[in-house]
Amino acid sequence: MSHVRLSSFIQQNLEPILKAWEDFARTIEPPALTMDDVELRDHARQMLQVIAEDLALPQTDHEREQKSKGLAAPEREDTAAESHAEARLLSGYTVVQLVSEYRALRSSVLTLWAARPEQVSITDLADVTRFNEAVDQSLAESVARYEQMVKQSQNMFLAILGHDLRNPLGTVSTATSFLMQAVDIPAKYVLVATKMFNSTQRMSRLINDLIDFTRTHLGPGIPVKLREANLSRVCRDVVDEMRTFHPEQLIELVMPPRLDAMFDESRIAQVLSNLIGNAVQYGDTGKQVVVTLREEGPAAVITVNNRGQTIAANEMAAIFDPFVRIASNPGQGVIERTSLGIGLFIARQIAHSHHGDLQVVSTDHDGTTFTLTMPHLPGPATE
User: Fold this and answer.
1) pLDDT (tens digit, 9 = 90+) per residue, 349-378?
2) I want to staple 217 with a disulfide (CB 3.0 to 4.6 A). Which of 155, 169, 182, 237 is the partner?
3) According to DSSP H, which parts of 115-220 are helical?
4) What is the DSSP string of 289-326?
5) Is-cis flag, bond preceding 30, omega within 30?
């Protein structure tokens, strides 16, 4: 009897291999119980054929190493493993169940291979090694596509949720604004309406942050509309607004009378408002928040400084990660992951959209300072 290589063995025994794999797949509940034989075998046959063809080709040491790490050269079109992941996600499979299918596929091939009546050949070990590498590559492709689709679905859900919340929130905001201006109702009701209005404004900012966050994951980033304007005026307007919103906090503004730049006014105002709000919330209420605007060569630089609990150097980078925020109370630890902390993440994304950057430094001597740097173009501004 002539010796059969593993690649040929797979091609010749597709049916018993698929039957063994299918028997395992039916043990995965509940999705598999609602799928027929064709669906259960959907891409397994294609993957096995690709693996068998790959085993028959020569392979360099570098290719072998890359494949063992799941880093083989990507295909121009979706692979069978990627299509398989999409189908399984839509059928309700978890990532654990998806991985278990590959374990079963590997087992069904190697079990039948080990039971063949032929004597072991010197090429068998190399064939099995390459088979495992090929299965690992397919598994890596499946898991990567599964994770990509899950993240995309989550971001799409957040985007839809944010947009759908805008309308009812706008109705509440308009109604409370109307009550605030009423002169024929008791003052205590006007006070309640004012508190409700302030809450709706805060909710609106959170929703806008949520929509901006999804934009960074579903598209090219946060859109900006650049035009020449007076950056000093924007800083002054935002600081005046924050002084009104936080009358208990002293906020100092140091800037030139005019600094023209090319930027998106509403977006930079959003960044500055976020930075000042953080400084007020996490700083020492007995010490002032200092906002400065200056020109450094071709760049416009805005800094926001507050004095309070410093941020540990090894935890500094996490501040700009989504869904984290600085802990407001000593003893909580510097980073608290139990709230929707996307403001600083969005602020940095806006800075990047302006071809700039946002950094933070925190020391016992100088306090915590956020620095926004972006290029500017001197010229006549539009007021």
Assistant:
1) 899 989 999 999 998 888 999 999 998 764
2) 155
3) 124-180, 187-218
4) EEEEEEEETTEEEEEEEE-BS---GGGSGGGGSTT-EE
5) yes
